[in-house]
Structure formats: structure tokens, C-alpha cells
Target: Aminotransferase class V-fold PLP-dependent enzyme
Amino acid sequence: MTATDIRSRLGLRPVINVSGTMTSLGASIVVPQAVEAAAAILTQWTEIADLHRVASRTIAELTGAEAGFVTASCSAAITLAVAAAITGSDLYAIEQLPDTGDRRNEVLIQTGHMVSYGAPVEQAIRLAGARVVPVGQATSAHAYQLAGAINERTAAAVYVVSHHVVDYAQIPLPTFARVCHEHSVPVIVDAASEYDLRRFLADGADLALYSGHKFLSGPTTGIVAGSKDLVRSVYLQNRGIGRGMKVGKESIAGVIAALEAWKTRDHDGIRARERAALNVWINALDGRPGIAATIVPDPTDNPLDRLKVAVAPEEARISAWDLAARLAQGSRPVIVRDHEAEHGHFYLDPCNLHPGEEFVVAERLGEELDRARLANEPIMTPLDRFWLDREAAILNWPD
Ligand SMILES: *Cc1c(COP(=O)(O)O)cnc(C)c1O
Model:
């Protein structure tokens, strides 16, 4: 951290993010092209409908869709896409939401897709005035259950692509889309965190939704891509519930620049740098008692590998969750990917590092593991207490 680091001016800790593109840590490192574009437009007047037209063309070019639209976030995109499926381009109906009157308002989603990305996906659907209709059970869903749930009240179906969803026995997207289309039900795919900007539309999505601030490294935004009629109906929601979720000119210009930069991004070079970071950590952990490190691919096929760090608590003298928590403390906090810590492992994600930070991560791992070995007692907080403490801590803000 340098003296000009805004974090030191604001009294914030210089966190190192090896957990992924997390909203709670600022999502991603925005590419310079997007920073420049946002700064350049902030002091200019511009006709927002025209700026959105430019964004639509850029999104269309990259996704292969007819049109595109920029929202405040992918979460907002889910709400506005559902709203569009309910109202179409009826301006009066748009102003009535979240009251849907006697319009179709049921939205189907597989039970195994009803996850939280920090907020419940089903709440983003309900926010538009829709009624959520779960399909199948948590750990299985079948095409006949989807077909059977469709009726004259069905407005849309939502499909989530994510490491959060149940990863077996769910309906594959091409089948899901075919069943929906047989009944003229539009399919909205939440692909917030996916690299592939074309695949889901090719697999049958009528609208594909992405976060602009995850792998694209743009400013906080959502991206909607799809058929022109549906995308127009999403755009028109800005005259209704979309107003409270509006996106500023700086974010629209910024995400256009991030999309342009994506076309020429040096993906191979980035992968090589990420692999080098993984190797630094493997070396740092080599021979440490109770620690096993393995490289694992991304669960939804994004071109990204992570380091899985398995912690045997008896030998390491610390549990995986305590180690993750201790790494996050102090003046050089390292935030790891710990959503599976109860299974005795966490991940190190190399996709959001500034140059050199991989060495700080290696040092911090060594530091905390040494400390645990030297402690009088093994560091093993019972998991139930660990979770309850964490839950209680949520309410501590702003103090
Ligand atoms: C991150 C995420 C979201 C939310 O995206 P935002 O742009 O942060 O609102 C929605 N769905 C999934 C699957 C996500 O990973």
C-alpha cells in the first residue's frame, strides 16, 4: 500500500483478495480503459438513450444477441428481466409494478437453483411483482416437472448458472429452454459470473444476464443480452421500478470500455500469471504439517484454476475455518474463498491479484501456520459457535 492509496486516506485496511470477484470486497480490479471512460464522461452532458444505444450495439457484438442493455447490477437485471416478461412494452403496466393486475406473473425456477449470491435469487424475482414457482426438489428436477408447472399464469422461467447451484440432477439448459419454448415461455439465464458471453444464448436463453464487474472487470453493472423486443421491454422498466436501480453514465461508458477491452484481453498471459501465483503458494505450503494443496479447475468451466488448501486440524493444529478467519485479521488481511471450510478446506483464487501480492499471501499463510504450531492449544473453534458468532457480527455495523 502506497501513501497515495485511497484506502490509507480513508483509514481502510489494505485487503488482499484471493476469494474471487466478491461484492463485499469491491468486486474486481476495474480495467484502465473503463476507469478512463468513466472519468471522461462524468463531467459531460450526454443523451442517455443514445449512450444506451451504443451499449446495446457493443453487447450485441460480443454476445451475438440482437440487443443489449446495462443495468445497475446482475441482481437488478434479474428483477428487470422478469418485469419485462410480465409487462412487455405496455407503459401503463410498467408503471403499475409491482402490482401485476391480472397479467401472467408466475416465474418458474428449479429448486436447486434457488440460491443466494449474497441475497436470495428468488427475492430478485419477487421484487418485480412475480410469484416464484419452484420446480422439482432441491437435489433433482425433471423435464416433466417443468412442463407440468407451466400454465396460463406462467410469465417466464429463470435458470441460474453458478457454483452455488446444486451441481447434479438439474435440467440442462438446452432441455430447459426447449420445454419452455414449446409453451412460449421466455427463458432468463442468470450467468452473472460466467466468462462465456455466447454459450447461454446459443443454448436457448431469451435473455442472458451477466455482471459487468466480475470477470469483465468493469464498473458495478449488470448486462442484459437477448432478443430486441425483450431487451426493449427491460429498457422501458426505467420508467417504472427500474428507476430506483438506475445506472449512471459513468457506469454505462465504463462497461462499454470494459467490453471493448475484453475483445483484446491477453487471456493466455493472464492465465500464465495466475498459474505462477498458484505455484508460489504450492511452494510456500510444501511440507507444512497437515496441509495438502491441489490445483482444481473452476466448477462451471470458466477458464480459471484455484488452489484448494486442505487442512488436517490435528496435524496443522488449526481448523480450516479458523485459519481462514486468522488470515483475514491484522494489518495485512488476506481474504480466502472459504464457503466450503466446514469440509476442511478453502480455496485461493488468483484472479484478482495486484503484482507481488501473491508473495504477501504466501508469507501470511506461513505466518499463521507457524503461529498455530507454536500455540499452547490447538485453534479449533466449534463450527456451530463459529457460524453463530459470524452471524451476530453482521449486526455490528456501523460500529
Ligand atoms: C454475483 C451473482 C449475482 C449478482 O450479481 P450482481 O451483479 O453483483 O448483482 C447473481 N447471480 C449469480 C449467480 C452471481 O454469482
About this structure: The two ends are 25 Å apart (CA to CA). DSSP finds 16 helices and twelve strands in the chain. The pocket of pyridoxal-5'-phosphate is lined by residues 23, 73-75, 117, 160, 162, 190, 192-193, 211, 222 (CB under 6 Å). Residues 135 and 149 are 7 Å apart (CA to CA).
